[in-house]
Amino acid sequence: xxxxxxxxxxxxxxxxxxxxxxxxxxxxxxxxxxxxxxxxxxxxxxxxxxxxxxxxxxxxxxxxxxxxxxxxxxxxxxxxxxxxxxxxxxxxxxxxxxxxxxxxxxxxxxxxxxxxxxxxxxxxxxxxxxxxxxxxxxx
Length: 139
What we know:
- Helices cover 42% and strands 19% of the residues.
- It is an alpha/beta fold.
């Protein structure tokens, strides 16, 4: 009887494992471009938003939040939930120059954002998300 219980518990634990896996994305994504519509980061964001939406079968919206050399859009991402559903399509100047130009920024690039990738061969374009601690390591 004990062997049957062990097998039953092992089966139930194995069946419950997929419930622990989280799918991403769980809802629509927002890509924030901190510049006016029609700029380099906006064009790249819209092209990738279309492909991401098709791939993930989730809506992907591009929001333009221009102003203060990109600081308004960067601040919006820094204040967003740290769940990976808000992305930032930004030129490097908003991340490198703004901290030196504006001494009282509402965000800290190193603390609040995490780089993801450079989506195109454009040395000034970067994608970032709100920095968060992973719930589980893949290693």
